[in-house]
Amino acid sequence: MRRADRLFQLVQIIRGRRLTTAAFLAQRLEVSERTIYRDVADLQAQGVPLEGEAGVGYRLGAGFDLPPLLFTAEEAMALVASVRLAQPWLDPALARAAELALGRVMSVLPSSTRAAAQALPLFAPPVASASLNPTQQQGLQQWREATQARQRVSLQYRDAEAQASQRSVRPLGCFYWGGRWTLAAWCELRQDFRSFRLDRLVAVEVQALPQGRFADETGRTLADYLRSRAPAEVVAQWQQQA
Questions:
Q1: Which of 25, 107, 117, 202 could anchor a disulfide with 76, C-beta 3.0 to 4.6 Å?
Q2: Cis upstream peptide for 210 (omega within 30°)
Q3: Is the distance from CB of 28 to CB of 63 less than 8 angstroms?
């Protein structure tokens, strides 16, 4: 990669994240941390408002922007592949948004790049046994939207032994396991974290605002859930991707 391209990519990566460490940048750009420190210093000297310091992390100051970046043919094909593979496993709203976003990207690409991406021979047909049914899609959408809005959810659930239960939970996240979704939550009944399989949900009802809204509490957040369920190195990797 040319140095000019690397500097551009460095700013793009930092711009899309709250805080970015030199170690993460070095891994993404396949250079040493020493090179990252030097590149950041050069960008700062040129007036790019990169805030932070070595050992802590960097972020981009307000009021700075870069011109739109055209995708390479490989990047465009990766976007097409990602949308095609994801759509059978997304809820209806996100599936439509993904298709619209892809169309918007394709519309501004050079004709040759667009044609190569659209001709990618990779597909994910919505096979009934390998995708969400309409009920599951709707349940996933309700859960995702409730998670984003911090709204409690009332649900009816059947466990592996087909035992039914009624729960009031704080939805925290949606996890895809290559063929199955699980839904993470803080369970008010058990006063502990619980994971619910999407295909075992009988009914999902989002509690009305404002009574149903909840605030993050120490020990009951998504970060707490991840720490309680995953090895430290996995949690660190997830936090880097956030």
A1: 117
A2: yes
A3: no
Per-residue pLDDT of the chain (242 residues; tens, 9 = 90+): 678 778 888 988 888 788 899 999 999 999 999 999 999 999 888 888 888 877 788 988 876 765 555 678 888 999 999 999 888 888 889 989 999 999 988 888 888 888 999 999 988 876 655 578 888 888 999 999 999 999 999 999 998 888 999 999 999 999 988 778 999 999 999 999 999 999 999 999 998 878 889 999 999 999 899 888 766 666 566 565 55
**Distance from CA of residue 80 to its chain's centroid?**
17
Q: Are strands 57-60 and 201-206 parallel, antiparallel or unpaired?
A: unpaired
Cα 76 to Cα 116, 121, 177: the distances in Å are 8, 13, 25
Phi, psi of 20 (to 5 degrees): -130, 125
- Torsion, Cα 165 166 169 173, to 10 degrees, reads 50
Amino acid at 206: V
Tokens representing residue 231 in the block: 């090895």
